[in-house]
């Protein structure tokens, strides 16, 4: 369903802090296949090395030819994407960029690889979702349009600060957000189940579990391709041969949980 400025958001626009971006900013108005907010955990449980693996995984994904082709082969051949980081609070660290050719996609990947984190301790997935939704609503009410609006959450823990994550999810989906997807990092099936039950929602939403930060890169490529093409992954996600097997002898990075309907 085409999103535009005529749709009124039920979510208050959060206070945003702009970050550094090397790609060109979004023009006054534009139309894209997908508007995507990358909502990334930078809480105290994420070490510097783990943060670098997480951001390196996102950068590698956007440099991947399959992801670039997925973007460029869409109906309009472009997406809008930003970055929100969350811990106790959340902040928009990279404003929406239009990715519509190899140069703009590579520039965005470079931005991701060089992006610093802000200092904070607790984990408020709720703040991340609310801020991600607010940035999307702001972009749409400025006269831009998108065929699909998606929030992409990645993190290594449960919501332990601020408001209710389920309330934030439901409020976002009551507005113009079509789907909230998630990739849990570590925590085994417990954290993945938490993401499936509390974080994800909307049309064809899904969650993937990465066994650790080292495995994150492979999982996020699968996740981004599904979000960009609008085709959720199914079944299981193979783990690279160098990574350990999960319990039960299954060579899996994680498994996918899906919700077909948008929560209202």
Ordered list of secondary-structure elements with their pairings:
Elements lengths: L30 E11 L6 H16 L1 H8 L6 E8 L3 E10 L2 H13 L10 H17 L3 E11 L9 H10 L4 E7 L2 H12 L1 E2 L2 E6 L5 H14 L6 E3 L13 E4 L1 E3 L5
Helix pairs in contact: 1-3, 1-7, 2-7, 4-5
Describe the protein.
By secondary structure, this protein is of the alpha/beta class. The protein has a single domain, classed as von Willebrand factor, type A domain (Rossmann fold, 3-Layer(aba) Sandwich). It is built from seven helices and ten strands. It has helices at 48-63, 65-72, 102-114, 125-141, 165-174, 188-199, 216-229, and strands at residues 31-41, 79-86, 90-99, 145-155, 179-185, 201-202, 205-210, 236-238, 252-255, 257-259. Strands 1, 2, 3, 4, 5, 6, 7 and 10 form an eight-stranded mixed β-sheet that branches. A two-stranded antiparallel ribbon has the order 8-9. β2 (79-86) and β3 form a beta hairpin. α1 (48-63) crosses α7 (216-229). It is globular and about 40 Å long. It starts with 30 loop residues before the first strand and ends in a 5-residue tail after the last strand.
Give me the count of strands. 10
> Residue-averaged pLDDT, rounded?
83
Please report which band the strand proportion falls in: under 5%, 5-15%, 15-25%, 25-35%, 35-45% or over 45%.
15-25%
* Apparent shape: globular
Q: pLDDT under 50 segments (min length 5)?
A: 5-24, 235-258, 260-264
Q: What gyration radius follows from the Cα positions, in whole Å?
A: 17 Å
- In total, the number of domains comes to 1
CATH fold category name: Rossmann fold
Total number of helical segments? 7
Helical fraction equals 25-40%
Question: Which homologous superfamily in CATH is the superfamily?
Answer: von Willebrand factor, type A domain
**How far apart are the first and last residues' alpha carbons, in Å?**
16 Å
CATH architecture call: 3-Layer(aba) Sandwich
CATH class: Alpha Beta
